[in-house]
Model the fold of this input.
Amino acid sequence: MPNPSSSDAIGIGLLGLGVVGAGVFDTLLSRAEVYTRRGGRALEVRRVAVRDVERERSLPLGDVTLSQDPIAVATAPDIAITVELMGGEQPALDCIRAALRSGKHVVTANKEVMAKHGPELLALAQAQSVELEYEASVGGGIPIISPLKRDLQANEVQRLQAIINGTTNFMLTAMAQHGASYEDALAEAQRLGYAEADPSSDVEGTDAAYKLAILASLAFHTTVSPDEIYCEGITQLTARDFRYAADLGYVIRLLATAQRVEGQPDTLEARVHPTLVPRSEPLARVDGVLNAVAVEGDLLGRAIFQGEGAGAGPTTSAVVADVLDVAYGIAAGQKPRPLRPSDPPACIRPIGELRMPYYLRMVVYDRPGVLADLGRLLAEHQTSIASLIQVEADAVAGTAELIMTTHETKEADLDAFREAVRGMESVHDIGVRIRMETARA
Ligand SMILES: NC(=O)c1ccc[n+]([C@@H]2O[C@H](COP(=O)([O-])OP(=O)(O)OC[C@H]3O[C@@H](n4cnc5c(N)ncnc54)[C@H](OP(=O)(O)O)[C@@H]3O)[C@@H](O)[C@H]2O)c1
Done:
């Protein structure tokens, strides 16, 4: 910082000095001069909380006070902005609450805290006349929270569809492009540092559901809790599904979707699950660790925000932008912006009511009459076939693999059909069912 310990400087307390925290610290230090020139007041990281104060750090910490007590840092009298970059629900939640109660502005990248406790924390910030900003909580460096809050507010958003988990997108791309198995794709993601040692939050879809809760709440001016979001991960997919999807003209993506239900303006669909996406769709071309969010508004049409969804640089870009926004507001003596008005709470439609086309893969014994039996069950469950491919699966076992796609079907009917098939003696393996997107005009 150009002017350490200046009494005029805006004091920053940093909670966490990991991948993002170190990036934020380094950026605030190395670009201090330009930020000060633009904002009129210096920004000074005065305190940093870490778990282990003994650990050697490669950053030039200088006079910065290092502490193992994040609440003390978050509430210290010489801090005006608390930047929470520890991650996880606790103690991050308590730290943010304590900071807001002490009248500090807060910037966080924490999707779990904002998804589960955002409404309470935003109300607390409002009551305390301070800002709470969270651009980096979804999509890393991609600007999406701010556009949803401000630039798209004149629209009635009809639909938001996103690839917001880089780990799973990397794995799905590897499975499609190199024929990798789920296990190999996960091992490669871990080797490259894209997946944690415990990848469950990514591969089971929870991480994407947290992010979708944040995006849907903003896009639809309501509160969508992560518990209300239907969530299915990628663990059931096999390399074969990617081959068959490609033959049909599709790729598989873990899509997070929130949309208004036609004819029911107060009802939303909110779901995270693997989806067959037509190869012609822009989201089908979002490969590797990239993230993308497509928003459809009645005035705007469709806009797609795409970029690096994680990593020190992109996430630092979003966090520091929030810090600068808050700091420039302080320097200009601005009052915090009021909370955006909300519409009445939305109902979330149960997943069984969903109507989509489906991809089904199953293994049956290659005997006369099997297809006729399946056809009868399909008719009993109001499900009609759009295409059917039979693949010789195992000549010795006498089984064949069937790849079916259906016309638009109610999910509850399709699940009842699959339950009935499970009981058929001629069915060897019920396989997977994957929801299919149709190409958009
Ligand atoms: N990494 C990304 O690409 C990315 C992208 C978007 C959003 N985010 C979000 O950014 C946040 C930070 O992620 P990260 O990847 O930087 O995490 P990280 O590398 O694991 O760093 C976490 C930091 O927090 C400190 N910490 C953890 N628990 C603490 C406690 N109880 N008291 C004091 N300090 C504590 C750790 O201290 P030690 O250094 O002593 O261990 C470490 O410095 C998370 O909310 C994450 O979801 C990250």
